[in-house]
Structure formats: structure tokens, C-alpha cells
Amino acid sequence: GAVVSQHPSRVICKSGTSVKIECRSLDFQATTMFWYRQFPKQSLMLMATSNEGSKATYEQGVEKDKFLINHASLTLSTLTVTSAHPEDSSFYICSAPDTNYGYTFGSGTRLTVV
Amino acid sequence: AQSVSQHNHHVILSEAASLELGCNYSYGGTVNLFWYVQYPGQHLQLLLKYFSGDPLVKGIKGFEAEFIKSKFSFNLRKPSVQWSDTAEYFCAVNAPGGGFKTIFGAGTRLFVKA
């Protein structure tokens, strides 16, 4: 089945540093990748949509300069949290559409900024 | 804009009880509907999906959902729950007219007492 591999699964970083999260589609081409954020005990909130070879589309209220998204190939999309602060601590999940299975999700990245 | 409403935030049931989780969406056009489950400490998994055809959809682990277009609803059901069904359940919708962005409901936490 379709698999999206997301790394790292957990990361702890110091305030002010940047963190890169990668999502790779392993057995299919992901021309689109959705990036979500999940706060504790809350639902997933769509942050942005990345499309291979073009600029990402950000949802209202999401700072594009803080959450840099790159989708340079059909199998790789990255989210970089720049100058991270404690309020950026969250669970970040990527998802790619696959017509066979609907939408395949990565396993998520738990970011803790100290 | 699309939105998804899940009526119950927390549900507690005893084993063998029947389950129905409500989900309503707002979007006037054609939609794709999903139910996802997130077991404790795990990532999202697809339970079932509706794209078209028979409005009664059967998914994994004995779950089913019925799409009622006139009510904009996609309720999840299971005749007899098990302790292992303890998890959080998310209803989600996307639409071709909305760029296939998947919008999630707030989630329902189900706890099944053994």
C-alpha cells in the first residue's frame, strides 16, 4: 500500500533554532503534500499545501516565513520551522493523496522547543 | 468554506455496546468523506471512505458509515464495540471544488470499558 515516511518522529530543539521535517512517498508519486498541525487534545489543522515544483499555499493565519515548505521532487516534501519558539511545540503530520487509499498520512513529528 | 462538525467530544461505552458517532459537514457540492482513527500513541489510520456509489460504506474492524446527502451527514457506526476500539475518531471531508484540501472535525474520544 501507499506509504509516506516522515522523519524525525521526535525532535527537541532549543528556542531560536530551526528544525526540518521530511516526508517521503515511498511507492507512489506525491505531486501534492498537505501539512497539518495537531495540538494536544485537538483536531488536525491544515497549515499548507505543497505542490511539486511550485510555491506552497498557506492557510490563513499560518506564517509562510516561519514555516518554510519545499516540494522539490515528486517523492519529497519538507517543512522547516524557522527560529522555533516554545509555542511552536506541536505534532506535525504530512499527508499525500493517493487515489487507491484516499489520503496516506506520515507517522508524525513531535516537536518540542525548549 | 468547508467545515466538519462532530457532535460528541467524549464517549464512554461498555464492551458490546453499539456505537454511533455523528458527523455533519457543510459544503454544497460533491464531497469525499472519510473516517480516521488514532489509537493511543499511534498515527492516523483510515477506517473507511466514501467517494461515490452505495451510501452505506463498510470499513475495517467492523465499522460502517452512512452518507445521507440530504442531511449532510456521515455517521460512523459499529454494532458491538471492543475495548481495543478505545481511540480518537476523526471525520474528514474534502471536495474537488475545494482543491481536495482535507478538513477534519474536532475528533471524538471513545473510551470502551472492559
Structure characterization notes:
The complex is a heterodimer of chains A (114) and B (114). Chain A has 114 residues and is mainly beta. Chain A is 0% helix and 55% strand. Chain A is globular. With 114 residues, chain B is mainly beta. Chain B is globular and about 45 Å long. The mean pLDDT of chain B is 90. At the A-B interface, strand 4, strand 5, strand 9 and strand 10 of A face strand 5, strand 6 and strand 11 of B.
Kindly list the characteristics that best describe this protein.
heterodimer, A: 114 residues, mainly beta, 7-stranded mixed sheet, 4-stranded antiparallel sheet, B: 114 residues, 6-stranded mixed sheet, 52% strand, globular
Short description:
The complex is a heterodimer of chains A (114) and B (114). Chain A is 0% helix and 55% strand.
The H-and-E topology of chain A, N to C, reads as EEEEEEEEEEE
What are the segments of chain B in which pLDDT stays under 50 over at least 5 consecutive residues?
none
Say how many strands of chain A there are: 11
Q: Based on helices, strands and strand pairing, what is the structural class of chain B?
A: mainly beta
Number of helices of chain B: 0
Order of helices and strands of chain B: EEEEEEEEEEEE
N- to C-terminal distance of chain A = 37 Å
Calculate the mean pLDDT score of chain A and round it. 90
Radius of gyration of chain B: 14 Å
Which of globular, elongated, flat, extended, rod-shaped describes the shape of chain A?
globular
